[in-house]
Fold this protein.
Amino acid sequence: MSIIAWILLGLFAGFIGNKIVNRRGEGVLTNLFVGIVGALAGGFLFRQFGESGVTGMNFWSLFVATTGAVLLLLTFHGIRQLGWSNR
């Protein structure tokens, strides 16, 4: 995929992931970061279970990237809650 496609997929996946987990968007740069890292994480996880990862600009790739973004956000929020509860 081209860099433009990764950016667009990351923006969409990050936005959807933030809407699912936080019920609101976090801003363009945060959505982009969460979406791209989520696409990489989701692709890795899906390949570990025998499915294809991110394959291009299609609905499957958006699903994989959004799943990765949601898991990334849930992990981040869980770690952040653990850190605050120990104080």
Notes: The CA atoms of residues 31 and 61 lie 16 Å apart. The mean pLDDT is 84. Helices lie at 3-22, 28-48, 59-85.
